[in-house]
Design a protein that fits this description.
There is one protein chain. The protein is mainly alpha-helical and 167 residues long. It is 60% helix and 10% strand. It is elongated and about 80 Å long.
């Protein structure tokens, strides 16, 4: 499959005009009273901190279990130590996976982070050189997927503030 660069750039410009710039350009010039913005990054940071503390507790529990078994081997019946150790390790695996999810959510940018880049983008588009447009779009767009549907070139623009659909 092939298409011209000019055609893809036109489709990307249409995406910017329809999905991105219009929201920014139509914002009122007088700021409205501030509403609390729901930002999942702050909640993810709190959750990650809680999970980090839990990871520390689990590591200490495993260390304490090992030390207790070394000092008091007769206190453990057959398989009791192994069962307790395996349960702590399972909790550690679950905790590690949750930390990774929280870290991903915490580091994912929010749409409003890019408003300064997008202010009046459509007005300036015609005045910018291709390299300038490319540099700006590299900050906003993760990927442009090009495909052909019924003979027409179709693009999917994946902005950086949305989760990567190909991840």
């Amino acid at each position: 499959m092939w298409t011209t660069r000019k055609h893809v750039e036109t489709l990307v410009r249409d995406w910017v005009a329809d999905k991105v710039a219009e929201d920014v350009d139509t914002a009122p010039s007088v700021p409205a009273p501030r509403k609390a913005v729901v930002d999942g990054r702050a909640a993810a940071a709190r959750e990650r901190a809680r999970l980090d503390a839990e990871a520390t507790k689990l590591a200490r529990a495993l260390t304490n279990l090992r030390a207790d078994r070394a000092m008091n081997p007769d206190d453990y019946g057959p398989g009791e130590y192994e069962s307790a150790r395996d349960r702590i390790r399972e909790q550690q695996e679950v905790n590690t996976a949750a930390i990774e999810r929280a870290s991903t959510a915490e580091s994912t940018p929010h749409r409003t982070d890019y408003d300064p880049l997008l202010v009046s983008l459509m007005d300036a588009w015609d005045d910018m050189k291709a390299a300038e447009i490319n540099a700006l779009l590299k900050q906003v767009v993760r990927r442009v997927a090009v495909s052909r549907v019924d003979g027409d070139v179709v693009i999917e623009v994946h902005p950086v503030w949305e989760p990567d659909p190909w991840d």
